[in-house]
Every structure is written in C-alpha cells, then in structure tokens.
From TrEMBL:
GO terms for biological process: tricarboxylic acid cycle. InterPro entries: Cit_synth/succinyl-CoA_lig_AS, Citrt_syn/SCS-alpha_CS, CoA-bd, CoA_lig_alpha, NAD(P)-bd_dom_sf, SUCC_ACL_C, Succinyl-CoA_synth-like. It comes from Elizabethkingia argenteiflava. This is Succinate--CoA ligase [ADP-forming] subunit alpha. Succinyl-CoA synthetase functions in the citric acid cycle (TCA), coupling the hydrolysis of succinyl-CoA to the synthesis of either ATP or GTP and thus represents the only step of substrate-level phosphorylation in the TCA. The alpha subunit of the enzyme binds the substrates coenzyme A and phosphate, while succinate binding and nucleotide specificity is provided by the beta subunit. Keywords: Ligase, Nucleotide-binding, Tricarboxylic acid cycle. The active site is at H248 (tele-phosphohistidine intermediate). Pathway: Carbohydrate metabolism; tricarboxylic acid cycle; succinate from succinyl-CoA (ligase route): step 1/1. Substrate binds at Y159. CoA binds at T17, G18, N19, E20, K43, I96, T97, E98. It comes from the Bacteria. Gene3D superfamilies: NAD(P)-binding Rossmann-like Domain, Succinyl-CoA synthetase domains. GO terms for molecular function: nucleotide binding; succinate-CoA ligase (ADP-forming) activity; succinate-CoA ligase (GDP-forming) activity. It catalyses: GTP + succinate + CoA = succinyl-CoA + GDP + phosphate; succinate + ATP + CoA = succinyl-CoA + ADP + phosphate.
C-alpha cells in the first residue's frame, strides 16, 4: 500500500527541458516512474527524453491525463507554476524549488485551499513510493518496498532513515519530504495522518527539526487519535543556538517551544518513541516491529 503516489500515477515535469528538470526526469524514468510528459512554455509540440512537451499544464492534463506534477522552476516563477498545476486539476503537486519568496507562498497557500489538490514542498526532496514511483530527487536505490512510512523535513535524513529501515530488514511504503520552508503545502501532521490511516503502513518514522510547531501539532494529534501504530521520532538541531537559522529557512528557534529539546519532550509525552541520534532510527524501528 502507498499514500499519494504509486505505479499508476501519471507524472509530468514542469521545467522539463531545463538542466535540473532533464537530469531528475531522466532519473525518475529510469526508476520506473510513469512520466507521461513535461511542460516548458514555447516548446510545446516537441519531444524530450522520448516524452511529449506541452506549453501548459492544462494541455498535459487534457492530452495525457496527467494527475501528478513535479516542479523544477526557478524561484521567481515557481509560485505561478504551482497555481497553474492546481488550476489545471493536478491532484498531487511536488515543488522541489528552494528560495521561493515567503510572500509568494502566502498567495499560493491561499489559492490552493479551494482546489482539490495536495502540495508537497516547496524546498523538498519530493515523495517516493518504493519500487513504484519516484517523484523527486532522492536516491531511488536506497528505497525498498515495505511497511514503514517516513515523513521528514530533511532531505538527507529521509534517505538516511530509509537506508537504516531497509538494513534493519524492513522496507519503506512511502517517504514524504515535506520541505524546510516557513510555508509549505503538506504539514507533518497531515503526512502522519495519511500513514496512520493507511492499513498497510505498520510504523512511521517522523523526522523534524528546530523551528515552528509542526512536530508538536503532529504529536498532539497522534495522542488524541488513540492510534497504537508505533511512531519513531527524531528532531535535528539539538545544539542550535537560539535565533540562528540552521540550513532551512524555517529552522529557526523563535521561542522556548521551538527548540529540539522542547519538541522531543512533547513527542515523548504524546507516546512517540523519540531517539537522540539519527543513527538509532533503524534500531528503534526494528525493536518496535519485532515485539
């Protein structure tokens, strides 16, 4: 079982013919993802990587039935690309772009609320359903099919967690990199809800970082849900000084509740199995699932 994407997803690439779009679309196709085409304005009617190029997302939806889009568009144009995808009826929109102005994302967040779509990102590694569909920039070879879901703010820690879970003898159902910007589409809580509600995901790894309330909100929801599905949690940035942005634009400690220690305490109190080091993620998953 998977959440959001699978082998039947019909994927298009916005920014298809650019350097990043070309490279990662090639990797996605090689992984086995059902890439049905791409969008580059003014290049419609041509072919790229053996797939058709369209001028607009609406044209791609109409002609090849696209329902998932991944965006490799520069920051100045990325917000428009997200809204265009939402407007055209794309159900899952993955935005990889880093550095989109916060003011632009405020408009995007408001705009897509009335649309029937889910946004992953921006500033994220994407989403992958093991051995079925890779819609992102993650190293596909790390992910093997299984029953552990991963939700993470950090790209590299997503891959690290997947590698550990696989080496511990358990595979990954779906991994969602939600992105590290202050304003993102899908929150930690929303991603966690999908995994808790997925009958074939038996455990969840939840990786967060300093700054904001996303992990605390997810933990409180988890406790209130009464779910007994085990969640292994880790928070990056335990040594980060207050007031300093660490890596991601959203990773800044603004108050006492934004620190790694405060989040870890809340998660533990809400019944999650919190590890102090990312090196312990795989061991913790194995311990919980072998009980």
């Amino acid at each position: 079982m998977s959440v959001l994407v699978n082998k039947d997803s019909k994927v298009i690439v916005q920014g298809f013919t650019g350097n990043e779009g070309t490279f990662h679309a090639g990797q996605m196709i090689e992984y086995g993802t059902n890439v049905v085409g791409g969008v580059t304005p003014a290049k419609g009617g041509s072919e790229h990587l053996g797939k058709p190029v369209f001028n607009t997302v609406a044209e791609a939806v109409e002609k090849v039935g696209a329902n998932v889009s991944i965006i490799f568009v520069p920051p100045a144009f990325a917000a428009d690309a997200i809204m265009e995808a939402a407007d055209a009826g794309i159900k899952v929109i993955v935005c990889i772009t880093e550095g989109i102005p916060v003011a632009d994302m405020v408009k995007v967040k408001d705009y897509i609320q009335s649309k029937d779509c889910r946004l992953i990102g921006p500033n994220c590694p994407g989403i992958i359903t093991s051995e079925e569909a890779k819609i992102g920039i993650m190293p596909g070879f790390v992910f093997k099919k299984g029953k552990v879901g991963i939700v993470s703010k950090s790209g590299t820690l997503t891959y690290e967690a997947a590698d550990q879970v696989v080496k511990a003898g358990f595979g990954v159902s779906t991994a969602i990199g939600i992105g590290g910007d202050p304003i993102i589409g899908t929150t930690t809580k929303e991603a966690l809800q999908m995994f808790i509600n997925d009958p074939e995901t038996e455990a969840v790894v939840m990786i967060g970082e300093i700054g904001g309330q996303l992990e605390a909100d997810a933990a409180k929801w988890y406790k209130a849900s009464g779910s007994t599905k085990p969640v292994v949690g880790f928070i990056a940035g335990q040594t980060a000084p207050k007031g300093r942005t660490m890596g991601h634009a959203g990773a800044i400690v603004g108050g006492a509740d934004d620190t790694a220690q405060a989040k870890m305490k809340i998660m533990t109190e809400c019944g999650m199995h919190v590890v102090e080091s990312p090196a312990d993620i795989g061991l913790s998953v194995a311990k919980l699932l072998k009980k």
